[in-house]
Amino acid sequence: MVTNLFGCDFFCAFFGADLRGGDEMLMAHDANQQAINATVAHRKTGYHCPGCQAPVQLKRGTVMTPHFAHQRDQACQTFSEGETAEHLLGKQQLAAWFLASGYKVQLEAPLTAIHQRPDLLVQLPGQKPLAIEFQCSPLAVPRLKARTLGYRQHGYRVLWVLGTPYQQARLRPTSKALKFLQYNQQWGCYLAFWDVQQVALCLRFNLLGFDGDPLQSQRQLFWSQRQPVDQLMTYRPTLLVPQIVAEQFQRRQRRLVIGRLTRQPRFMALQTLCYQHGGTLATLPLWVYPMQAKLPILTTAFLAWQVQLFIALRKQPVQVWSLLALRQLIWQTLQPCLAPMSCIETPRHLCQHLIQTCLNELMTKQVIRPVAGGWRVVQRQLAWR
Q1: According to the model, what pLDDT value does residue 249 have?
Q2: Which residue, 57, 79, 149, 262, is the most exposed by fewest CB within 10 angstroms?
Q3: Domains in the chain, ordered, with CATH?
């Protein structure tokens, strides 16, 4: 258990102080191999790093979060990223919140079987342990995927919580926070952010993307000093279905024209593709333009995927399709457009959701019609306008 000595209001006074340069940690081992929190450590006692076993120095004062640090010339693979004051403070605040909510809490717990050390490892009796990573520094997608997979393969749940560098008032499809996209049935696609100044978790959920616009989402704030963790874990909101209005469609059309005129690379690539198949972006059938916000799991615009589907349908001699064959064709055009889903445990579920949404739109817009033996593609819907 972690000693509840975190004093969150006091720590907020030095949010923003940069501690980069050494390898910092909140826990270190004493001479008896006991894990000691920096908040209760003694200056005259010797401590060493739980990872590399090198001596570490206790740093505690009125202008910094208590922590241990390596010497600047020491290299440590376990604590190699360096930590900001925000990271150190946020871990303390999160630990205090979970501890006050009845969880068993371990800071920087060494998981020797997978050679990983989450910022927090928390657990309630009868539940799987939850590894919490408070991410404030850059992290490459392969490393993110490996760490997440490592936890799950060894029976740990995992929650990525993001700090200030990833926080934006308006998330866009290109936002760097999206590589941490997570999903569950109750919240849809979501991101979790920790605010060390408010000592609160901001949940941005039901994230949906629409070409050219900031992501649509709902949000809920959880104040750690007033609300227990259970209010987060049992939160079951009503997921709103966004309505697309005509004005949004008109704005998107204008963006396409501007894109062609200013030779934006992504639109010019689509324009070239259309030229190669006998048309232009302006002469695409209207059903190709997305009219509904979708799960933000593509690396391209949704229009780029829809153009690929339109061209694939035009190239097929098949007149009547089985539902399975249609799904397979949609998947073939979708797969190259998918973004890495490093933090999502069931990416196949989200892909199937997109495929079904696409099928529903094809039916609604009468691109396909039911006939005996399957579905017939309406040929006039495959003609350039």
Answers
A1: 74
A2: 262
A3: 8-18+84-233 (3.40.1350.10), 285-382 (no CATH)
